What we know:
By secondary structure, this protein is an alpha/beta fold. Helices cover 35% and strands 20% of the residues. It has one domain: Rossmann fold (3-Layer(aba) Sandwich). It has helices at 22-25, 30-44, 56-66, 85-93, 132-146, and strands at 2-10, 47-52, 70-76, 98-102, 124-127. The longest helix is centred in the N-terminal third of the chain and has 15 residues, at 30-44.
Amino acid sequence: MNPDQILILSGPNLDQLGVRDVAVYGATTLDEHVERLVARAAELGVVVVHRQSNFEGDLIEAVHDARGRYAGLIINAGALTHTSWALSDALDVFPGPKVEVHLSNPAGREPFRHVSTLARVVDGSVAGFGGLSYDLALDAVVRLLRSSRLPPGAA
Ligand code: DQA
């Protein structure tokens, strides 16, 4: 396992960023977000690897494969966030720090987006800051890795 390697997982329809509901998700493409995160990771002294899939089973297998390979995990599961207990169970097995990310703020949107199946198994979530949500999530995972675990309430 590489202690400095972090997996970023993107779920369904995130490959459509840049054309999809730009008023909600912004005009930045997924590739552009990843490019920025790769650069930010280098500044932080870690490496990020990104995978996107529109298929629930692929994402579940990616989480399985991450065990023993990646120290931490960041996931934007798209709409699977609100439906997939299978993905939630898979994430539960991953032992490292894991952070849920959303570009938008699902809690302020339609009621079906208010439920996150992932919330019970992640260390925390960052939502509503557009691309900055990813940057903040990366910072959080790196800090969790470096401090093993921050005590509740610590900055
Ligand atoms: C999203 C929010 C989800 O509700 C939605 O289905 C997405 C994107 C976000 O990043 O804001 O696909 O995860």
